[in-house]
Amino acid sequence: MSKEQFDYFVNGDQGKYEVIIGLEVHAQVLSNSKLFSGSATKFGAEPNTQVSLIDSAFPGMLPVINEECVKQAVRTGLGLNAKINNYSVFDRKNYFYADLPQGYQISQYKNPIVGEGKVLLDMPYGSKEVGIERLHLEQDAGKSIHDMDPTSTYVDLNRSGIALMEIVSKPDLRSPEEVNAYIKKLRSIMRYLGTCDGNMQEGSLRADVNVSVRKVGDKKFGTRCEIKNVNSIKFMQMAIEYEAKRQVELIESGKSIDQETRLFDTKKNETRSMRSKEDAHDYRYFPDPDLLPLKLEQKLIDDLKKSLPELPDQKKERFIKEYSLTPYEANVLVSEKEISDYYEEVAKLSDKKLAATWMLGDFFAMLNDKGLNITQSPVSAKNLAELVQSIKSGEISGRIAKEVFEIMVQSGDNPKKIIESKGMKQQSDPKELEKMINEILTKNKDKVDQYRSGKDKLFGFFVGQVMKVSGGKANPQLVNEILKKLLKG
Amino acid sequence: MSLDKEKIKHVAKLARISVDDAKVESLTKDLNSIFKFIEQLNELKTDKVEPLTSILNQSLRSRVDKINDGKIREKVLKNSPKENEEFFVVPKVVE
Amino acid sequence: MSDITTQNLKDIVDQVKSKKISSVELTQSYIKNIEKGKKLNAFVTTTFEQALTSAKQFDTKPNFEQLLPGIPLAVKDLFCTVNTKTTAGSNILNNFVPTYESTVTKNLWDNGAFLLGKLNCDEFAMGSSNETSFFGNVINPVGDQLVPGGSSGGSSSALAADFTPATIGTDTGGSIRQPASFTGTVGLKPTYGLCSRWGIVAFASSLDQAGPMTKTVSDCAIMLEAMAGFDEKDSTSIKKNKEHYSKNLKDNVKGLKIGIPKEYRVDNMPKEIDELWEKGKKILKDLGAQLIDISLPHTKYALPTYYIVAPAEASSNLARYDGVRYGYRSKKGKDLIEMYENTRSEGFGDEVKRRILIGTYVLSSGYYDAYYLKAQKVRQLIKKDFDDNFTKVDAILTPSTPSSAFKIGEKTNDPVSMYLNDIFTVPVNLAGLPAISVPAGLDKKGYPLGLQLIGKTLDEQKILNIAYAFEKNCGYKNNIKKWWV
What we know:
Structural class of chain C: alpha/beta
CATH superfamily of chain C: Amidase signature (AS) domain
Low-confidence stretches of chain C: none
Number of helices of chain C: 15
Radius of gyration of chain C: 21 Å
Distance between the termini of chain A: 44 Å
Radius of gyration of chain A: 30 Å
CATH architecture of chain C: Alpha-Beta Complex
CATH class of chain C: Alpha Beta
Number of strands of chain C: 11
Number of strands of chain A: 17
Low-confidence stretches of chain A: none
Largest sheet of chain C: 8 strands, mixed
Oligomer: heterotrimer
Shape of chain A: elongated
């Protein structure tokens, strides 16, 4: 892996600009019930069937906090190497919208449950540390459906009240690639912890992107714009590129940048200002009088810390040490918990390095081709291990292994069965091979003479003949040895 | 501190309450007299005082993560001003 | 048989238990009174049919072990009652029928009582005279077109007029104690957190408390016992052992220290209030209590503090009334924002709108520190005044109100003069303490006046006991003539 220079800049007419990016990621907490009510949280339920009187804000309703959501936030904070605050407060964020039944969102303003932390990214140009400002718990809003009727909006409150963790990064990101790596890392950490499933299509992971630009060398930050609710990494990257260019153009034409909230239009691939949000910023935060301050015992935090699973960074270090993998290999294999679990199962039963090579090669290629993720793999870890071992033991050649693998993918059978039934065992008997090679050399006496008189390239011809006659099953190393011996004459 | 008509109109907008000009007149008078009354608090020096965070001497109680609510769509939609079997229906939002 | 409805709850319960009267007979007596008393406008909704059904059910299978066996009760229209319209005195909820029951009313029904009707109140509990209700004024049974106090004006009026043997109200700044004082009845605001707020239309969350309104102190003890208790659905509910206020009611005040705060007077306070206070002091002293002069130095800042904190919380609590999911929705409005603005403008009355605007303003950007944060600091000081003094005294005695009931319309032009009614009651809510108002005498116009006893946190039994002793020795009697029949 080459160490590339960091090179993401916007080239304006009047100079080079760097792009300053901060992300506010909203991650839905994995829990059975909502943050302040006992309604279910499963995605895809019939409209308004996972809604209680509390979620729909009937008169006299009161919130009671879900202990698991609190623990999930603490676990995530620990996974981000962050400070867990023993004292935090829930505040009301007041604004009006059809999918916000209370007319306020219960969130955390000045005293969040988690403080500063950091996340490490593996970039081609080295390791990059991204600071985390804070993480707080808040309620998700319901869904407004605008396209079911020309004059009405339909409201589904199933999502209203589900726990969200808002993770605010410091403005440390500098390119769309870094944003990609950051989101993937956050997602991976939370999936490892089991605190969020990171499913962007279902909306359990969303982000608001803050973008500003400044001339390279400037120390002051420029005015930033917030691009709200971008629901895929690809769109985030496109939005950042568009927005950075837009801001540079404004600056270079002498205009100022309005600090505002914008949307990313996925059809036109551009950002645009959100309509009339002048008073959107006056949320009139105040501590929610229906709740008391949250006090976390240090023992709870310590117990949660002890029971954390191995996280990606730790696993990566261990893979490098224990399995003698390269940093690149380890990085790929720990990117998802399911992948690392699969790999370790394969490595337990076969050669660790070869297993890694096969996974990063043919195995992932197959999954990508079929659009499957590892949990849907038609080849089990046990079977892949068996295949790797049969290569390592010399039972089959690497080339034949690829054929066997293809059959494994189609049939789901184990390699031993396939090798037996198709007679694909490698021919490794030196006597048999010598006999075969002698026959070939005898048949091609003229070429043997040519080789002996200096035409080295003909070696490949003989190898090819051996493979042809043996149906590809001749053990390549032995073939090389024996050919060399016999050709010497 | 005195409230002018513009301020009152702005606050009414934040609170989503429409006020016509006549209303703004009477509100300006009433609210200003109330604020004059409230401003007595400025007589007190409170820099070193902690604000009250809770009248109760206990910390936040939590509940077990169990599904024990919801699945009451009929009840929840029963009082809707615009009848619909599945959704709450409101005039279109213009984004 | 003498009119049972003129008797107090305890005696009525005794008669039901000894089968001297059936639940149906009892209920019918109240229904008769209510039907003859429409002039007072105390009720928003009556539930006579259901009440008689419940009464019949009770008589068929009576349970005399209960605290409120077969007792019909009307309650303030701020408590959500299942399948019975609940309006909070507002147009914005004029058609709202809850599918759920508030915890406090459920507690009453679990103790044997049943619903007789919903009582009028100031809109969203905001008022001190029951003149802000969408359903019209309530008239004080004392007569002379007087207000019954507020916001629990329908409750105090119905109680004093014998429309219900007892009732419950809510108290955020004095809304139980002040109407009690104006009608010559007993009203208690419990310690914040003793009674559940679940299912009560919220006004100001850190101040609201449900409480009993009764004819006598012993009735009050019975009702409190039935109402109070931990509720896991309310995060501000206090977990404690159940207390038997009724059984443990004692009229012994010997050796108790009663604090007399010098700040509980106002300029131009009628002399009669002072005289009443002196009368109260003397009675308690003669019974063996020790009077101690105390100072609660931040008392005068309580009302301004209250008028920042309460509207702020209310502005947020009332944001849910937007016409989307229940209640009134305006027919005007071409989009969502206009629908909101018109719904709330048409649905809320003037006092509610004023308070929402004040609340929105004091929380808004740039003003939060100067108003809301400041008020929370002063609230801390007010609480500390009480905490410091309660190390020296067992209870504090003050007048309940700075005057007796005034005439309907007398104070509606000036919001601030209306607010001043609560000057003696508001500090108690800010400190979260329990307090009871007991009728103590009549002013020279013959209008009732009450005295207030403030207790320590969760010390309801003690203030009930002191009030009980006072009541016994005070000899106050309501002389209400049923002029409305």
